[in-house]
UniProtKB/TrEMBL annotation:
MF terms in GO: acyl-phosphate glycerol-3-phosphate acyltransferase activity
GO biological process assignments: phospholipid biosynthetic process
Keywords: Cell membrane, Lipid biosynthesis, Lipid metabolism, Membrane, Phospholipid biosynthesis, Phospholipid metabolism, Transferase, Transmembrane, Transmembrane helix
Record PANTHER family: GLYCEROL-3-PHOSPHATE ACYLTRANSFERASE-RELATED (PTHR30309:SF0), INNER MEMBRANE PROTEIN YGIH (PTHR30309)
Pfam families according to UniProt: G3P_acyltransf
Protein name: Uncharacterized protein
GO cellular component, one term: plasma membrane
TM ranges: 6-27, 53-76, 88-109, 121-143, 149-168, 175-193
InterPro entries in the cross-refs: G3P_acylTferase_PlsY
């Protein structure tokens, strides 16, 4: 059992580490780490290569999280389909794929903000809180024009949704609650530079079209 857990967590981390933003940008002749904010995530790729590529990266990074929590635990353990949020292995795989994106081994542990990958994990594990968080994200970005602020507020909304709407957020789903809090902390910490720029008034805004 321990070996299965370790194998599953390593696989989840390695999948999370796949730097789609970096790879696609390099294919276009651009090192996205040296352009814009220097981040390999969808937002910066969208700024550097255009919104179409930003959307592609967002979907690919989201799918990393979704596929890992859906598939990996089934293949490495006796868990039956569909995977559920009250299983510790599923939650740990979700955490590892998210941390893989944020700290990818392939790029010297310098990765993205992990927003899209986190949403992919929670789309499967907590779809209703994610739907609420997506609405909060849209509203926040529409009002502030800051994608980074929307991402942070949306992540906090997932925590609120899981605790407020969950069947047993501090009982059978305590692992899901813990995951949402850990991810929210990670994403806010990863956005510290954005927070400083927002306060200074230098953060890049989304332009309405």
């Amino acid at each position: 059992m321990i070996i299965s857990y370790i194998f599953g967590l390593v696989i989840s981390y390695l999948v999370g580490s796949i730097p789609f933003g970096y790879v696609i940008a390099i294919a276009k002749g651009v090192d996205v780490r040296k352009e814009g904010s220097g981040n390999i995530g969808a937002t910066n790729v969208g700024r550097v290569l255009g919104r179409k590529f930003g959307a592609i990266i967002f979907v690919l990074d989201l799918l990393k999280g979704f596929v890992v929590v859906l598939v990996v635990p089934i293949f490495i353990s006796d868990i039956e389909f569909p995977t559920t949020s009250d299983n510790l292995l599923v939650i740990l795989c979700g955490l590892c794929v998210i941390y893989g994106h944020a700290f990818p081994v392939y790029l010297g542990f310098k990765g993205g903000k992990a927003v899209a990958t986190s949403f992919g994990v929670f789309i499967w594990l907590a779809p209703i809180p994610v739907a609420i968080a997506f609405g909060v994200w849209i509203l926040t970005v529409a009002i502030s024009r800051y994608v980074s602020l929307g991402s942070m507020v949306g992540t906090i909304a997932i925590v609120g949704g899981i605790i407020g709407l969950g069947r047993a957020p501090f009982g059978s789903e305590k692992y899901l609650t813990a995951l949402s809090i850990a991810v929210a902390i990670l994403i806010i910490v990863r956005h510290i530079s954005n927070i400083k720029r927002i306060i200074a008034g230098t953060e890049t805004k989304v332009l309405a079209k």
